[in-house]
Amino acid sequence: MHIDSLAGSIREMRPFLPAKDFAVSKNFYAALGFAIHDLGADLAEVRFGEKAFLLQNFYVEEWANNFMMHLLVTDVDGWWKHLSALDLPSRFAVAAPKAPKLEPWGLRVCYLIDPSGILWHIAETAG
């Protein structure tokens, strides 16, 4: 069997994100608008519409601080307005989200860091 024939068998590809404080991370993502579905004491599916990732009650600082998520959207300005209105720094002791800017690689990106140190790139194609 050739590996290309298996491409159609993939239903989803979901990364496992670390959580320094599992409860705080679940609350953070719920505040962003994600639906949280507990899959056990130490694992949750974090879903927004048809897209999801897995949040685990596991944390290694060096790993979390180098972990990045890329969320490609059609309305980065809408996401920016949504994130700005949530007052995340005072609610979750995180850095303030960064406003969208055009990056040299051709995407407009706003940046968000979650309570575990994960850097989110929320981006849209410029133009």
Could you explain the architecture of this structure?
- The protein has a 4-stranded mixed beta sheet with strand order 1-4-3-2, covered by helices on one side.
- A hairpin with a 2-residue loop joins strand 2 and strand 3.
- Helix content is 24%, strand content 35%.
- The chain has a single domain (12-125), classed as Roll (2,3-Dihydroxybiphenyl 1,2-Dioxygenase, domain 1), CATH 3.10.180.
- The model has no long low-confidence stretch (mean pLDDT 95).
- The protein has 127 residues and is of the alpha/beta class.
- It is globular and about 50 Å long.
- It contains 4 helices and 8 strands; from the N terminus they run βαβββαβααβββ.
Please render the helix and strand layout as text.
Elements: E1 16-18, H1 22-32, E2 35-40, E3 43-48, E4 51-56, H2 61-64, E5 68-72, H3 76-85, H4 88-92, E6 98-102, E7 107-113, E8 119-125
Parallel strand pairs: 1-4, 5-8
Antiparallel strand pairs: 2-3, 3-4, 6-7, 7-8
What features would you highlight for this structure?
127 residues; alpha/beta; 2,3-Dihydroxybiphenyl 1,2-Dioxygenase, domain 1; four-stranded mixed β-sheet; 4 helices; 8 strands; 24% helix; 35% strand
